[in-house]
Specification:
Largest sheet: 12 strands, mixed
Number of strands: 12
CATH class: Alpha Beta
Number of domains: 1
CATH topology: TIM Barrel
Strand order of the largest sheet: 7-8-9-6-5-4-3-2-1-10-11-12
Bound molecules: S-adenosylmethionine, iron/sulfur cluster
Order of helices and strands: EHEHEHEHHEHEHEEEEEEHHHH
Helix content: 25-40%
Distance between the termini: 24 Å
CATH superfamily: Aldolase class I
Strand content: 15-25%
């Protein structure tokens, strides 16, 4: 089992399969100056399958595939299908921007994907273009509707940003009135690949905006280890979540690690470095060696994201796509 020095057991791994993307969301990456990894530096699917097996042998039961945009990597479905053969893996989720996703929904359904997180920051087409710098709103909305049609559990993730889309919060929340989905509002984090600051809307401000429109929201039970605080508009089919990703008030129950596209295991989004698994996967290390290296690295997990951030090199500016958001 993978347990840190505070007794937290790691049962959830987020694996980023690529740092590339077909959108350029300004809160995630610069428009032009992104230096994507050469292919040889990405973990291969075989390496990720081996790693997943090692992780599930050590008690991981849930994996989320993310990126960059997972569907820009060729043969993703084949990889997901292979992951699904691992009977120790109870949950397999994916986070996607929805641009290419619709054509794969039949296959995602047939491998029993546990849920899809769809990123959508506005319901306004022009604003979507401003935020993502790509004209793909129609495709993403079509994916949204198709996920509902396929009856795949759906969470919609909106990064809430002051002066950018705070006036979309109410309309986004209204999606939960008639759809059985979770609409989640995420505090913006400082991972846009530059030192540009955008102005935070905090968890409390998001809650205030929602409450002033819908009245007092019902607080509902948060799933174990959830990073979101869940609420419901009375009478709605779905629910709302607020993720205090910048305020970081949920670290005490953290059960997760991240694997970056180049195979670095990070204990926390806010960590600077991490364990280079790619080297271990390629230098003849046995599964046992890798499991032991993971356990040792997990012992160094900081108590919370603030301590992780305090210990990172502040002179480099990472993009969420190269960490694996
Ligand atoms: N491309 C996929 C997508 O957008 O869903 C998966 C990767 S993306 C990095 C994963 C999630 O991170 C998305 O929901 C995105 O909105 C979120 N994200 C990216 N940059 C962020 C930032 N600076 N602060 C908060 N969330 C961010
Ligand atoms: Fe691409 Fe996702 Fe980053 Fe947007 S948030 S640029 S969709 S990786």
């Amino acid at each position: 089992m993978l347990i840190d020095k505070f007794g937290r057991q790691i049962t959830y791994a987020r694996i980023a399969v690529t740092d590339r993307c077909n959108l350029r969301c300004f809160y995630c990456m610069p428009e032009n100056a992104m230096h994507f990894l050469p292919r040889k530096d990405l973990l291969t699917y075989e390496e990720m399958e081996r790693l997943s097996k090692i992780l599930t042998d050590e008690g991981v039961t849930k994996i989320r595939i993310t990126g960059g945009e997972p569907f820009v990597r060729r043969d993703l479905i084949h990889f997901l299908t292979n992951l699904r053969k691992n009977t120790k893996l109870k949950e397999l989720h994916i986070t996607t921007n929805g641009v290419l996703t619709e054509q794969y929904l039949d296959q995602l359904k047939s491998i029993n994907i546990s849920s899809i997180n769809l990123s959508l920051d506005t319901l306004d087409e022009a604003r979507f273009l401003e935020i993502t710098r790509r004209d793909e709103f129609t495709n993403v909305m079509s994916t949204f509707n198709a996920i509902l049609y396929h009856n795949i559990p759906l969470k919609v993730n909106m990064v809430a940003m002051k002066g950018k889309n705070e006036d979309d919060i109410v309309e986004m929340a209204e999606l939960s009135l008639s759809h059985p989905i979770s609409v989640r509002f995420i505090e913006e984090m400082p991972f846009n690949g530059s030192n540009e600051d955008h102005g935070l809307i905090s968890y409390q401000e998001i809650l205030d905006i929602l409450s002033s429109k819908f009245g007092e929201l019902s607080k509902i039970q948060d799933p174990e280890n959830s990073t979101a605080y869940h609420y419901k508009i009375p009478g709605s089919k779905g629910n709302l979540g607020i993720i205090a990703a910048y305020t970081r008030s949920f670290c005490g129950t953290c059960n997760r690690i991240r694997i970056t596209p180049e195979g670095v295991m990070k204990n926390c989004l806010y960590d600077g470095g991490g364990l280079n698994l790619r080297t271990l996967l390629r230098d003849g290390s046995s599964d046992r060696d890798i499991a032991e290296a993971l356990q040792t690295a997990i012992l160094n997990k900081h108590k919370d994201g603030h301590l992780a951030e305090a210990n990172r090199d502040k002179s480099t500016f990472e993009s969420m796509s190269s960490i694996g958001g």
